[in-house]
# Entry
Amino acid sequence: MKDCLFCKIIKGEIPSNKVYEDQDILAFYDIEPAAPIHILVIPKKHITSLAHLEKEDEVIIGKIYGVINKIADEKGFKDNGYRVIVNCGKDGGQEVMHLHFHLLAGRQLGEKIV
Ligand code: AMP
Ligand code: ZN
# Structure
């Protein structure tokens, strides 16, 4: 989608520090890390938010969790653990309107909300 920051990153119009890529999914380091390891995992298809998910998108969501586990394994933090966060909409604090999964690791994440 035009004027979408993450679509521009997917197209290579804006640089990113890539961690993983396949035909459906891209993962790259967050520019403002909130933990020692902070990776964003996104579908290449423009999906505005979790609230905009269509039935056909559910397969990609499953694949994203598989990619998250693969990254955790390859980067060596699978055993220590990690946190996955999806902010959705205004009250969820979503700033970039292209569905993304925050993958946080590398320290004890203390600020539990739920
Ligand atoms: P959210 O608040 O859930 O929409 O998260 C958006 C995230 O995108 C924030 O953690 C930002 O630091 C991150 N971000 C914004 N611009 C970039 C960029 N150019 N490259 C990597 N991460 C970015
Ligand atoms: Zn987009």
Remarks:
- The first helix runs from residue 5 to 11.
- The mean pLDDT is 96.
- The two ends are 33 Å apart (CA to CA).
